[in-house]
Amino acid sequence: MADKNKNLISVALKRIKEKHGITIEEWSARSGVPSGTIARYLSCSFNMPNFPYVCALLRCLNECIDDFFDSIDKKIEVPADALKLDA
What we know:
The structure is a single chain. This protein is mostly helical and 87 residues long. Helix content is 60%, strand content 0%. The chain has five helices and no strands. The longest helix has 18 residues, at 3-20. The chain is globular, with a radius of gyration of 12 Å. The N and C termini lie far apart (25 Å). The model has no long low-confidence stretch (mean pLDDT 87).
């Protein structure tokens, strides 16, 4: 997977996490996705995201899956410092 696409996924997930004000552990408990996997997604330390996991992360917060993937598809440019993990 191209680094740019990985960055887009990481930034989009980080924005959702910040929007809902939850910790990785809370997100893991709600979604069933392992906290280590969530941390890797947020820090862009993954090869290919697991589609069912990404859907679970979005669904548990009532986020629109279509909107999420539309934002990735549009190739939104993001600043490099937006990828910093605060955890």
